[in-house]
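Appendix B. Chain record.
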Amino acid sequence: MNIDKNIPVMVTGATGYVAGWLVKRLLEEGLTVHAPVRNPDDVGKLQYLDEIAENSPRKIRYFKADLMQVGSYEQAMAGCQVVFHTASPFKIDVKDVQKELIEPAQLGTENVLATANKTPSVKRVVLTSSCAAIYGDNADLDKTPSRMFTEEIWNTSSSATHQPYSYSKTLAERAAWEIVKAQNRWDLVTINPSLVIGPGINPNGSSESFNIIRQLGDGTMKAGVPDIGIGVVDVRDVAEAHFRAAFTLAANGRYITSGHNTSFLEMAATLLDRYGKDYPIPRHALPKWLVWLVGPIANKALTRKMVLLNVGLPWRADNSRSRNELGVAYRPLADSMNDFFQQLVETGQLVK
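Structure tokens predicted for this chain:
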């Protein structure tokens, strides 16, 4: 297989958190980007992409498309060899799991890949999946062969009522692999990030990541944070992994894209030197019994089942495939956290 960088590529969800940095990387490399969006005339929504395209050797072309509308990506995908499917919501607080999480993730993926099947130019699809498709709860680590999450493992513990976001990502990725197996013209590579952090191309991004980091500085968590192990990765590293997955011809299968096996308390600690005097950065882990007692009241995502299966438990994943095969080098956790926090301060989202 030969992928020609002179041929346009398509990026779904181009205005999103990961996609913004991916588009920037593609433009800097000299590629033309086809960006299907709901409203190509929404100047405010597209201004951040337009800004990064101004000084780039190639350009962005916008196309009207809807993730849930069958066939709406046909025009944008026509003539492209590489398709990046990044569009999928990252939300925790939802009212309708089916409409807000499962359908956009699973049916949206099926719609995009069905169009890939009909587009003769497509040779590779790079799908933004998640480590959430590998595990549902930290307790799942005990079921792994070496107490380490790897690409061979699938999430079997989530459902529409327990960890529904993780469930939606699992359904979407499984659907993608079933579709690719039914044909032999194009191949699929999935990028499976852990929690994505770092500054956004759009500083007012809608990703849940922004809410999590804001809460570390707005007083929401000043009394302490739940002692939950978590994987973390910089958004710029995730974008680079997507880029390399597309143009590394030997790339195949799933790639855990996670820079650090850490915890919320360790994440907060990276902010103390620079921001600890002016912002209520949490300095303590809350006792598990307290999180179990009041967590569901403070945050409906912290169900008692979630607390029991995650609080006080570590998270570990093997990122060696992404390092060895894609050549991804991960930024230090402190750099990602401080860059992200500083953006929130500069844009007025956090106040001293």
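Further analysis of this model is presented in Appendix C.
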